[in-house]
Design a protein that fits this description.
This protein is an all-beta fold. The protein contains no helices and 13 strands.
Length: 191
Amino acid sequence: STMDDVYVRDTVAQTTLLVSRRSGLDGAKAVGASRSATFSADGRVVAFETTDDAVAPEGGPWGGSNQVVARDVATGQNTLVSRAPGGAAADAAAHDPSVSGDGSVIAFSSSATNLLGGVGGNGRSGVFARTMATGALSGPPAFGLGVPGPYGAKSPSLSDDGRCVAFDALGHNAFAGTAGDFPTGYVYVIA
């Protein structure tokens, strides 16, 4: 088997930096897979999926499921992005990180039920956006209402200023009703 890691390549300085590691500039390498990295326009913030709960332990153990972690490349500080308002890790895997241009907002998808009330669960995924400075979590309403998955929202993509998130969704929802029976692109205004 293979183990995925996340690196950042500085094409000017010709250096390569391991990002999938525990907090600190010399933090231990992550044990477990790390992948799906995306970064801010200035390269300062990198968000990625990892199964290693020691990479961002503030949410407690998450049992080997993928969670989204952000790393400040300059300071080496990691932050668990896919966490509930009370601080616990999402109670289901988190995927598809997207970072705003300045790294102030990070979006992801998950079928977790402990992030926003009524979103996620029953095989349905939701899209979530975390404002990093305040920790505030927001996102569009649930998709796939009234039926078990594989419905819901996924594949978030943040605008450069972090004010809007585009995403794909499938299934009935609170604002489009039965119009959501086909895969459709939506935009949710965060701020």
